[in-house]
Amino acid sequence: MIPRDSTKTIRTLLRGFPIITLTGPRQSGKTTLAKAIFADRPYVSLEDPDLRRAAQDDPRSFLERYPGGAVFDEIQRCPELLSYLQTIVDADGRMGRYILTGSQQFGLLSGITQSLAGRTAFIELLPFSLPELRRANKLPPDTDTMLLTGCYPPLYDRDVAPTSWFGAYVTAYIERDVRQLLKIQDLETFQRFVRLCAGRTGQLLNLSSLATECGITHNTVKAWISVLEASYLIFLLRPHHANFNKRLVKMPKLYFYDTGLVSWLLGIRTPQQMETHPLRGNIFETLIIAELVKSQLNRGEPRSLYFWRDSNGNEIDVIVENGNRLIPIEIKSGKTVNQEFFKGLEKWQALAGEAVDSPTLIHGGSDRYRHKGIQVTGWRESGSVLSA
Fold first, then answer.
1. Which of 46, 75, 283, 341 has the maximal Cβ count within 10 Å?
2. Rounded mean pLDDT of the chain?
């Protein structure tokens, strides 16, 4: 097992909460991590029809089987247990008794919010981060292979090609799970929608444009986007509110959590195709911003990432709120750093004044140095930028 950065955070939270709820996309390693942390406790998969039926038919007797606690995997499959867990932990008072895992935020979060408010801490586990892969000597050798492979754990512990694995993943989870949530009958339209979203990673989310191109209504696009978010396939980066007396773009930007999935959806199958693909810059930006998200989530911190763009086209790829300070981060896929890379950061710093903290440029090469107060960092170290 490749050690996960969130392990320390989870162990700390287990000292102060009776329950930890571990969420994230399917195949991100939630079960493996939960079983490693609770190696001495029973593991119960509620995907198992027999176990699920027993839990639904007689929740009290079911939970009595695990007096010392347990890992309950895919808890959203049996929400009936949540109220009974509340009663048990309230009466018992022990910390660190249960780990719950779930792959979908719908249902799961609403049920836990109602039944376990104040009794559980949440950790979102995404696929491997670059620091995790680097420490395990699993990091792909070059940028294009990294973008093509992505970070899902099965690609690093099995002898399977990304093309084969993502084909099965899309069929088994996206087309099954998401369609069930949305009750979609027209699979072809939904497949086209997901691919259109992949083609827009790193771009402003224009719902009307998506609706027109896909031949569905504006409200349907909103609903489908929400479910892709809840399934941890995409996330939206919101514009930062500080305007510095400029008119700002108000639409969010759309990103996928994993570049391997984006690449597969776009039909990119080799590093050579990636190298010349017109969306390579967007895919590289997706990799880096997903790494920044992982960095915060693995430490149990709330997401505080935004972007900034004014009506004149001036833009900063990422603004990180750090108290009353703002960390601007520019992302450039080129391996060779040139003066043009710094223009956006320099212009934004002039507007922001004293609010600026640790301006950073992340690029597609490996050089690391400081330039006029700006930290220049290669992509391999991007996951460590916010923890430095």
1. 75
2. 91
pLDDT above 90 covers a percentage of the chain that reads: 73
> From the centroid of its chain, how far is CA 271?
23
Which parts of the chain fold into alpha helices (H)?
6-14, 30-37, 49-57, 59-64, 81-92, 108-115, 130-135, 143-149, 154-157, 162-169, 179-182, 187-198, 207-214, 218-230, 259-265, 271-276, 280-298, 343-352
Q: Select the more confidently predicted residue: 247 or 169.
A: 169
Q: What does the domain layout of the chain look like in residue ranges?
A: 6-124, 130-387
Tokens 């440029």, residue located: 361
> Hey, which residues does 241 pair with through a beta bridge?
none
> Which pLDDT score, from 0 to 100, does residue 276 have?
96
Q: For 13-22, how does the pLDDT look when each residue is reduced to its tens digit (9 = 90+)? A: 999 999 999 9
CA distance 387 to 246: 31
Count the neighbouring beta carbons within 10 Å of the beta carbon of residue 30: 26
Report the distance separating Cα 158 and Cα 319, nearest Å: 37
Helix, coil or strand: residue 153:
coil
Q: Cα(78)–Cα(277) distance, rounded to whole angstroms?
A: 44
Pairwise CA distance, residues 99 & 22, whole Å: 7
Give 243's pLDDT tier (boundaries 50, 70, 90).
low
**Per CATH, the architecture of 6-124 is what?**
3-Layer(aba) Sandwich (3.40)
* Spatial CB neighbours of 148, under 8 Å, sequence gap ≥ 6: 162, 259, 260, 263, 268, 269, 270, 271, 274
Contact in structure between 207 and 213 (CB atoms under 8 Å): no
For the entire predicted model, the pTM comes to 0.93
Token representation of residue 327: 């960390």
The answer to whether the CB of 213 falls within 8 A of the CB of 197 is no
Please report where in the chains the tokens 């597609």 appear, as a residue: 364
Query: Given the structure tokens 């939206």, which residue do they identify?
Result: 236
CA distance 374 to 361: 7
Question: What does the DSSP assignment read for 38-106?
Answer: TTTS-EEETTSHHHHHHHHH-HHHHHHT-TT-EEEETGGG-TTHHHHHHHHHHHH--SS-EEEEES-ST
| The residue type at 353 | G
Distance, CA of 2 to CA of 194 (rounded, Å): 30
pLDDT tier for residue 128 given thresholds of 50, 70 and 90:
very high
